Amino acid sequence: MERKEQRIKIAVQKSGRLTEHSIDLLQRCGLKFTRSKDQLFCYGENMPVDLLLMRDDDIPQLVADDICDLGICGLNVVEEKRIKLSANGAAPGLKQVFELDFGHCRLSLAAPEGTRFDGARSLENKRIATSYVNILGDYLKRNGINAEVVYFSGAVEITPKLGKADYICDLVSTGSTLAANGLTEVETLLDSEAIVIQTQAPLGAQKQALVDRILQRLDGVLQVRESKYIMLHAPRSALADIQALLPGTEAPTVLPLEGTADRVAVHAVCRENVFWETLENLKAAGASSLLVLPVEKMLV
Ligand code: PRT
Ligand code: ZN
């Protein structure tokens, strides 16, 4: 049955590492927003798509409960929620739709410098401080390890110094926080980045069409990020070599060059970054007048 509420809600981190990137990404999808006075809501001005600004940890649940149709948060918080729900026999209620290539970090085990670590068995009967009790618990269970998981919601990295833990399990990006606390990373449990999640609740046809439209635009924005439009001139005889050198392209457009019988212009969209080395190799294969242009929008 069609629901009355036809506006889409996207949950985005209110204030933190993912906020700016997330809002920028949605704006590049052509969405325009006005922020409410309480800063918790962004009203979609040009499409019926609003943002709910939340703590990142709350986003998976909001999407799973169908309060929001889409959400942007770290894989780390989604995985933590997924393991918790599946331990209780519940279905996750959400699915991952895109990886966004920002918010990169890893959830790692770390110990005071000099600690000897021989894999999971070194954790037997140790105390491990973390806010990721479910991911850590799952890792310990899979490895058959008995350890005491001590929950801390923040400042996990100081717990060994305070005598509260032997190891920590926390997010790391540059590693400087660990180093500043005399800790070294001993094992990575999860590689994470920001992702887009979608509710699994059935939507009415109209709302579903709107969600699909947003997802298609997101796909386009993500594809053009790496994509380049490349143009060059080449002898017809070098075409096969040149095509093999063009990174991530399907069939290029080949056009005759006015006034020459054997030279052509080649235009292609490259779905990967075009490096100087690629251009040098193309030139060595016979290409000339090489131009690389950014792609602004793409709809495939
Ligand atoms: O208020 P709210 O709950 O929304 O914010 P928050 O404080 O929980 O989140 P925030 O903004 O710090 O992080 C949001 C998301 O960014 C995380 O869930 C991850 O997906 C991602 N992310 C990427 C990180 C980091 N890198 C990161 N380095 N999240 C946290 N950190 C912290 C880490 O916990 C540790 O304290 O940064 C410190 C380590 O950084 P390095 O560079 O010293 O290694
Ligand atoms: Zn958080």
Query: What's the overall average pLDDT, rounded?
Result: 93
- Helix count equals 8
Euclidean distance between termini CA atoms: 31 Å
How are strands sequenced across the largest beta sheet?
Answer: 2-3-4-1-5-12-6
The coarse silhouette is globular
Major sheet attributes: 7 strands, mixed
Number of domain units: 3
> Helix and strand succession?
EHEEEHEHEEEHEEHEEHEHEEHE
User: Which structural class do the helices and strands define?
Assistant: alpha+beta
Bound molecules: phosphoribosyl ATP, zinc ion
Which residues form runs of ≥5 with pLDDT under 50? none
Assigned CATH class of the largest domain: Alpha Beta
Number of strands: 16
User: Which topology of the largest domain does CATH recognise?
Assistant: D-Maltodextrin-Binding Protein, domain 2
| The CATH homology group name of the largest domain | Periplasmic binding protein-like II
CATH architect. name of the largest domain: 3-Layer(aba) Sandwich
Portion of residues within helices: 25-40%
Q: Can you describe what's shown?
A:
With 300 residues, this protein is α+β, with helices and mostly antiparallel strands. α3 packs across α4 (133-142). The chain has helices spanning 19-28, 59-64, 75-87, 133-142, 176-180, 205-226, 239-245, 276-284, and strands at residues 8-13, 33-35, 41-44, 49-54, 70-74, 94-99, 105-112, 127-130, 148-151, 167-172, 183-192, 194-199, 228-235, 253-256, 263-270, 288-294. It has 3 domains: 8-102 and 194-223, D-Maltodextrin-Binding Protein, domain 2; 105-191, 3-Layer(aba) Sandwich (D-Maltodextrin-Binding Protein, domain 2); 228-294, 2-Layer Sandwich (Alpha-Beta Plaits). A 7-stranded mixed β-sheet has the order 2-3-4-1-5-12-6. The model has no long low-confidence stretch (mean pLDDT 93). The longest helix has 22 residues, at 205-226. It contains 8 helices and 16 strands. 27% of the residues lie in helices and 32% in strands. β3 and β4 (49-54) form a beta hairpin. The structure holds phosphoribosyl ATP (PRT) and zinc ion (ZN). Phosphoribosyl ATP binds next to α3, β10 and α5. The site of phosphoribosyl ATP has 21 residues, from α3, β10 and α5.
